[in-house]
Write a structure and sequence with these properties.
This protein is of the alpha/beta class. The chain has 3 domains: 14-63 and 119-171 and 297-379, 3-Layer(bba) Sandwich (FAD/NAD(P)-binding domain); 180-293, FAD/NAD(P)-binding domain (3-Layer(bba) Sandwich); 392-498, FAD/NAD-linked reductase, C-terminal dimerisation domain (Enolase-like, domain 1, 2-Layer Sandwich), CATH 3.30.390.30. 31% of the residues lie in helices and 23% in strands. The protein has helices at 38-49, 64-69, 71-88, 93-96, 103-113, 120-128, 180-183, 188-193, 208-220, 239-251, 344-362, 379-382, 401-406, 422-427, 460-469, 473-476, 489-498; strands at 14-16, 25-34, 54-58, 133-140, 145-150, 155-166, 170-172, 200-204, 223-228, 255-258, 262-266, 274-278, 283-286, 288-291, 295-297, 331-333, 385-388, 394-398, 411-417, 434-440, 445-452. Strands 2-3-4-5-6 form a 5-stranded mixed beta barrel. A 5-stranded antiparallel sheet has the order 17-18-21-20-19, sandwiched between helices. A hairpin with a 7-residue loop joins strand 11 and strand 12 (274-278). Helix 1 runs parallel beside helix 11 (344-362), helix 3 (71-88) crosses helix 5 and helix 3 crosses helix 9 (208-220). It is globular, with a radius of gyration of 24 Å. The two termini are 46 Å apart. Residues 1-20 are annotated as: Disordered. Residues 384-490 form the Pyridine nucleotide-disulphide oxidoreductase dimerisation domain. Keywords: FAD, Flavoprotein, NAD, Nucleotide-binding. One of its GO terms (biological process) is 2-oxoglutarate metabolic process.
Length: 499
Amino acid sequence: MAEERAAETTGGGGAGPAGGAADPAADVYDVVVIGAGPVGEVLAGRVSEAGLSTVIVENELVGGECSYWACMPSKALLRPAAALADARAVAGARQAAAGELDAAAVLARRDDFTHDWDDSSQVEWLDSVGVPLVRGVGRLAGELRVAVETSDGSSRVLTARHAVAVCTGSRALVPDLPGVAEARPWTSRNATSASEVPARLAVVGGGVVGVEMATAWQALGSRVTLLARGEALLPRMEPFAGELVAESLREAGADVRTGASVTALRRPDPGGPLTVALADGGEVEVDEVLLATGRGPRTEDLGLVTVGLEPGDWLRVDDSCRVDEVPGGWLYAVGDVNGRALLTHQGKYQARVAGDAVVARFRGETAAGGRWGAHAATADDEAVSQVVFSHPEIASVGLTAAEAEARSVRTRVADADLGAVAGAALYADGYRGHARLVADADRGVLVGATFAGPAVAELLHAATVAVVAEVPVHRLAHAVPAYPTISEVWLGLLAQLRG
């Protein structure tokens, strides 16, 4: 649900003049938002709280992908496995955690977090802040206009006085493989909402969705085969991250194969098993296959041609999320749809930045751009934070060492074995993990950090603050971590950077 929960807004929209007899009625607002996921909710709440009349259009569930098919259900599936692994890693607790996960209870808890795919509580929040919801498919219809095919079969045209914000997110890409239609593969939506545990599951893709869902379903009782086309898992992160995750999945019983390209799917009996054919001539027989092979923007049916843009493209934006190629500066694209950083928290960050920029321009003020300006989503380029809720967890912010070098940054890199830290040894017997800091040697500040190990997600925000605030490394040495915690790893890492 959106973060900003204003008690009152001016709200309201006046009915615009109808066109000819065949034209839909036109409603007029200051801002029209297309898409009521977390990004659209935050942006709508932000501008409404500032006094701009705002309407939001949604064709599916208010709360979007994150609430019902991504962040919340996936982490609800993953958390019980992590809790059990933590218990089994500590002598004394291990003896009390001798059983297996109760898959039915895990799935029921997942359903609680999705409210059984009922969005009424999020609709109530929109009502509470005075943002009306129009249920239906919204499409751009020229400058400052959004045509809506409503869920009851009627049509409306919403007119914006000031801005239209596209917050339609992204969708799973399904590769055009032979047999894919008959195979009825899972996408990420199926993987997070399935009501039964498949006996055998193939996961195609070694990125974040692939490793998280392989981790979850292996723990729930599937025999998982993970097929990654590249030579490593999590290829956009530091190499040790994918190595540790692959090792852990194999220890849990998963069959992890890298350099494995899928060439076809076959399911001759609609109710039977399917075969995954590989480029090396091998085959894998499973009951379900998840294609976790990337995401594309939800812009294929958005009316982009009416404003001179190509359907299906990512929408290119400036740092305030205003679409570069549309004259007049009225169109914004916020969140996944602009391709900058496909993460819910980064999209909500963009929504705060863009919402404030919309309000500033509405008031005739200059939007404050520039590096780390109030109306610039600079973190999308320099300080993206991310947690992969695999086993072990991977937490990262900013640049990897390779990315920094590709930007011609003269780097200093510090590495540490997390298992050697007293707090980690207390956290889990035989704790395995690794940490890396990447510093700009010329400026003396951190530009990236990656942690891999149980419970490292809680280390991440300290690193994020250090990167964003550009705290000098010599000053960070005065930030003393409490003993005995896993955060003590900072002492050794900083000593390397200062040595």
